[in-house]
Amino acid sequence: MIQDIATVFWRDWIVLRHRLLKFILSRMVAPVLYMVAFGWGLARSVNTGGGSYLDFIVPGILALNSMNIAFNSLTPLCTERVYHKSLEEYLLAPISASGFIIGKILAAVLRGLISSSIIVVLAWLFGAKLALTPLFIAVLELNCVIFAEAGFCAALIVRNFEDMARFNTYLLLPMSFLCGTFFKTDRLPHAAAFVIELLPLTHASSLLRAINSGAPFSITSAAILLVYAVLLFGACHYIYKGLKNQ
User: Fold this and answer.
1) Rounded CA gap, 217 and 211, in Å?
2) Cβ(119)–Cβ(58) below 8 Å
3) Are 1 and 92 in contact (CB under 8 A)?
4) Does some domain include residue 230?
5) Is 48 part of any domain?
6) Furthest CA-CA distance within the chain
7) Residues 6+ apart with CB under 8 A from 119
8) Residue 95's CB: how many other CB atoms inside 10 A?
């Protein structure tokens, strides 16, 4: 299976390598806007209970950005399946389902980490303080894995590219602003806060922020993220095997 993973990952890496400069430049725009608008524009009017607001939102921006990049890195699978029919090459090839899934997820995680490293550099330039510990990076990687798996599942079940865009509108967009990225979730109404606490981005944001600020690490949040990762991988495997057996 290692050979299968390497084959799938290497193909995606070759594609990314040829577009790496464009990828890096395009990923700089949104983080700069977030840090200017929220980190500078709102910093003086927002009370985070200690520390600067810029230090507060950067972990949230990292969680938000890694979510979007990891998820959208696998949306081309929808086009390959529905329009180009090129996904059939993988379905017919002697590549294991797990090898294909893991290879694609690792490629999406790589994109998420490259994009996150750009944000880290920009955050330092803006004066933010970040504690890039191994645990911080591990949580960031886990967040990438979860949403890469979600993107994989979505790309293989939607009927067209317009349906794929609806996932961004109805799932990713609300999470981007409500899951503790720009403010604490305890400010939401109790019913809304309960629902938000069930979503993975909330726990990724809170863990990254806790690690960065030196607050206690939540084992519960980490366990919830691991459960999401395992369940979504099972869903990926089930959906892909269903296509392979058709």
Assistant:
1) 7
2) yes
3) no
4) yes
5) no
6) 58
7) 31, 58, 61, 62, 65
8) 19
Q: What is the pLDDT along the chain (246 residues), one digit of tens a residue?
A: 888 899 899 988 998 888 888 888 887 787 778 777 776 666 555 655 666 778 888 899 999 999 999 999 998 888 888 777 878 888 888 888 899 999 999 999 999 999 999 889 888 887 888 888 999 999 999 999 999 999 999 999 988 878 888 888 888 888 888 888 888 887 788 888 888 899 999 999 999 999 988 888 899 999 999 999 999 999 999 999 888 777
CA distances from 192 to 178, 181, 185, 199, 237 (A): 9, 15, 9, 11, 32
Q: How far apart are CA 154 and CA 173, in angstroms?
A: 15
Tokens encoding 131: 């504690």
Structural domains counted in the chain? 1
User: Is residue 101 included in any domain, yes or no?
Assistant: yes
Helix-, strand-, coil-residue percentages of the chain, each rounded to 5:
80, 0, 20
Q: Is 158 within a domain?
A: yes
| Domain of residue 149, residue span | 2-32+53-244
Q: How many Å apart are CA 187 and CA 190, to the nearest integer? A: 9
36: exposed, middle or buried (C-beta count within 10 Å: 0-12, 13-18, 19+)? Answer: exposed
**Pairwise CA distance, residues 143 & 138, whole Å:** 9
Calculate the alpha carbon distances from 68 to 3, 147, 171, 217 in Å.
28, 8, 11, 24
pTM greater than 0.85 (yes/no):
yes
